[in-house]
Task: structure prediction
Amino acid sequence: MTRDFSRLDALLENFARNSLPGCTCAIMEGDKLIYSGAAGYADIEAGKKLNVHSMFRQASTTKLFTYAILGMLYEEGRFLFSDPVGDYLPEWKETRKFIVRPDGTVDTAPTDTPLTIKNAVSMMCGLPYCMAPVSKTDTPTLAAMSTRIAALLEKGTPTLREEVRAMADVPVMFEPGTHWLYGFGSEITGALVETFEDMPLREVFRKRIIEPLELADTDTFFTDENRDRVVRNYRKAADGQLIAAADFYDASMDPANTPVGARPNLITSAADFAVFMQMLANGGTYKGRKFLGAGTVEMLHENQLGEVQLRDFENDYLRGYGYGYGFRTLLTRQFGHNGHLGCFGWTGGSGIWVEADPVGKFSIAYMHNMMPNEELYHHHRVRTVAYGCML
Result:
């Protein structure tokens, strides 16, 4: 079938002309790259144009590698999702939760059930993200996490295991499994992977995904070879002006200042991320090599949220999706998605959007480099036009 991608080309050009420094998109089908488009700049000041191999900071889409690897380890019999986290990370043997007494005072109590691997992977563990000092008006859990992070940072960049160990005695916000809350569950998941593999997570990424999939545009550290290919990040001011800005994650991606065991953050291209997502869209295989069983891939993106958790999860951006083991998954088209039910993927902070279609056997990776990322405006339009071209 010959497809016409001119509408997608026009959309990217429109974005770069009117609202973004630049953007790029790759689409794969089967094992082939069938579309690569780019518009705008990787570096406005230097006049450097974007291309489909330009490398972007991934932020939250990094965790998709972690969840896929966890699926591989699951297939090897290393654990069950119903296992308590404390069976493998001893500091998590006992979990406490914050409770509010009838008189309004805050206290803690043991959780009714142990925190399980499923709770961590499906973001139902009750620990939010904490990236900065918090005020006294924030939740007790967030305040406690902030105190522990501050103590770690005084000693330098912590390893992932140090981060996870430090949070083990923080009372969670709710009984595990009862609510959905995006946050620290991915760090717990990463620590589990490190424990099963007995090596830092970034090295597991290389062993299990980067090298076998031959992802030449992908790394977890800046190097002399890739630094010039990493896009510059921009912040959009209130008047619409684009201002070059340092990225939150850059310090942690300098190997001179960051231990190998620190929490990894990917830098990669739309072309490379589309390969990873295509492996999942294919049911766990790529170019004849099996990475995951098809049933395991289905399990990873099957919705795990009930009515209460879906209310926690839903917002204008995610409406129509549920959440599996680390992946959003399309449950209904009634809010304007024109792909197949079961499409799955995730989003990264400065403008990353990736999705796999397991019915159509194709994948889409879109990236831009701006904060605020205006994801609702850009990602939903890319989604609509790309699926229109494919289906």
User: Anything to note?
Assistant: The radius of gyration is 21 Å. The domain at 6-62+222-390 is CATH 3.40.710.10 (Beta-lactamase).
